[in-house]
Amino acid sequence: MNVAIVVRRLSGHGGMESVIATVNQTARSHGTPLEVWAMGHPEDSSWLRDTLCRQVNIDQGTARRLQLQAKLPLYVGALAFLLRTTSVDTLLATDPTFVEAAFWARKLVRRPLRIISWLHFPLDRMAHIRHLLHADGHLAISTGLERQLRAIGVRAPITVTYNPLPADFHPQDPPTSPEPGHFLYVGRLAVAQKRIDLILYGLQHLPWPWQLTLVGDGPDRGLLESLAAELGLSGRVHFAGWRADPWERQSPTALLLPSDFEGFPMALVEALARGIPVIAADCPTGPSDIIYEGKNGFLISPGSASDLRCAAQRSLHPRAWRWDAGHRQRDALRRFNAGRVFQAMTAGIEACRPL
What we know:
By secondary structure, the chain is an alpha/beta fold. It contains 12 helices and 13 strands. It has a 7-stranded parallel beta sheet with strand order 3-2-1-4-5-6-7, sandwiched between helices. It starts with a strand and ends in a 5-residue tail after the last helix.
């Protein structure tokens, strides 16, 4: 098996980049050739440091999904050229348009090629999803995404794989006494998806002393700072900015993630792998695969500040969780181990045959 992952132009700072870097590192340790075919030059290529990457200059932006179809002939030509000049026999396509481009490129080069979709966003957040019907198989990073694939009528095999923790992830023992009333958010400061505004509204009337640390940066930092001031919470909300290690010196009561949508939120997995319980919105894909209600976290209704407040209040109870920190950590390390995820991906790929 000789694999190439086809990606659009990426920023270099997102979760997909981290996952691809981990899968590449794990593939190398298993002796599986793997490379990345980028349809545009990444803004930051440091995540490709140990990865063979072939780049073509087609994509000029990082999130213009609706323009992908217009560039389909360019993608077909690029993939056909790369297939002719390499021995790749399996393409992992991270967008439906790349599935379609690979389908036509395979016809041009006339040689065996497995085309597998490996999507990192819910289908309702992607364009041209009917192209997925041309894939020979699908690696679904969550059971929610598997359901969405079946709902559009795909007949090719689907393997649920989840996403892995970093291959070199070696966390310290979890803290035995978390800071009571300290809540944490780690991620991009974008209200439209992440709904960080719900955290502020939800915690506003919590009847216990509390502090909130927001680790990350993004387009809505100013808006959130203004909202915190408007609600009289400036003294309780700390904007920590982007950090290379967002978990350093953090021992919170719980991590909060009230997103309207996710693919497979690695912030939840990384928190649990450190023994930190989580409170997350039960959006269509991701959190329900990670959280065991009352054991390692709480699921809340999407868009509900009152649900978040109730869950935060429950988390402050001395016996809030049926699992202790060590149990939470061991479970996350077992389920989302890089080697385990890579084995699931390999099995899913090998079960597929070109249509």
